[in-house]
Structures are given as C-alpha cells and as structure tokens.
Amino acid sequence: MARLLVCPPDYYGIEYEINPWMRVSNAADPEKSKAQWHNLMRTFEEDVGVELERMTPVKGLPDLVFTANAGVLYDGKVVISRFLHPERQREEEYFERWFTEHDYSVIKLGVECYFEGAGDLLGFTDTWFGGYRQRSDFGAYTALSEIYGKEILPLELVSDKFYHLDTCFCPLSGGELLYYPGAFDSYAQDTIANSVEKRIIVPQVEAERFACNAVCVDHHVVLPSGCNETMDLLKRHGYTPHPVELDEFFKAGGSAKCLTLALD
Ligand code: ARG
Question: What average pLDDT does the structure give for the chain?
Fold first, then answer.
C-alpha cells in the first residue's frame, strides 16, 4: 500500500509572498481550507487506498502543509530540503525531526545549494528529473545523483508561476508524462521529448489550475477539480481521475501533489 506524509492545515495561511500566486491580501479561509484538506485525505484513504502519516502542524509555519518540499526519499535515505526563502527555511528542522524520529537516515546537502525536495525532483523508475532555476540549484542534482546512484536530468523552469517541477510535470504509473511544456526552456522541452515517449500535454488554462500537481497511485490520479480536459486525457489513457476542490491552496501556489510526500 502506498504511504504519504501529510500535515494538517491548522496553521495554514498566506502570511508572506514568495511566489506569484501568493498575496497576503488574498487570505485563505481557515474553515474552507480545513474542509478541502480533509476531503483530499478522505479521497486518498477511501477512494485510492493510500495510507497516510500525519505530521504535527507548527504555529507560524503556514507552508508546512506542503510536505512535498520536506525532502526527497529513496532507498530509506532522505535528503532534507534546503529552502531558498528564509520564510520556509524554518520548516527544515521539523521535517528533519519527523524523519529522524521515524528511523530514516537523514542526509543534508551543503548549505550553498538550495534544493526543495520532491517538489523539484521527480521521475520514473529509471529516469529522474530535477527542476532548477526557480527554487532548487542546478548543482543540487550532481550531489543527489551521487547520493542515490541515479542519473538525474536537470530541467530549467522558465516561468515563475511554475516555480517547482511538480507544478508542471507529473510522471504517471504507466510511464506516461502529464506536463505543461510552456513551463520549460526549449532545451528542457527537447530533453523531455527525447527521454519520455508517451507525453500527455495539459492545456495552459488547466496547467494554471495546477492540473499537473496531481498524485498518481496505480491507475488512480488525484487532481484539483476544474481540469476537465486533463481528466478526459487521463481517462483516455486508462486512468481514473479523482477531482478534489483545492482552491484555498491555490492561494499559496499549491495543490494535491504539493500537499503530500511519497514515503516509498
Ligand atoms: N507557498 C509554497 C511555496 O511557495 C507552496 C509550495 C508548493 N509546493 C510544491 N511542491 N509545489 O514554497
């Protein structure tokens, strides 16, 4: 059974602006955020059959809900994130503590390298991809590929709206890639085209509703609601889409995938 790390939104809110989606004046509704988050968790547990590990939320850390950015985990080894923005650097110790308490071996990258975890490092079994320029540094992938003994293809992200790789790039269990090419420079677009045969292109309007910020478990794909064309594309490829209303989290620049970290 797939396991995901999540963090309840008790202290979620828009308290600073570190991406173009965030406006302090556009506050998140606490009750609506909690209802949307719980509905997402219900979907994972009951409709998809995922096991959830819940972290303890921390007052003053509104983005801790985005556990995709805790770090990256593979082979029992966790590389903890080193956030670009000081506002999120305060999350690092809480993520690290969670992994240590759960007996993972925790590795840290050098401080001179920024790396925002599974938000920027994604892939298929054999090919991994690392998003850089917006948040993570190119150099992080050299270090990570040594740690994990995997080749990582760096992909340059050119739009500040798609500041993490998981906002525009979603590998599916059957080997297809769901993605939005407009978020990448032309070299990265070529890299993707040359390394992934089955590509499903998300239209811009739906990419801007975080259609690519989806969680795929077997043939299930959990994605934000309002992405009908993406849902049709997924169905045509044999997947079962599970739309969940998540607009309170769009206000922070996040959606379904950002709110989870795969633990296996
Ligand atoms: N407000 C958060 C930030 O800008 C959102 C993080 C979304 N996470 C993700 N994996 N895309 O850092």
Answer: 97
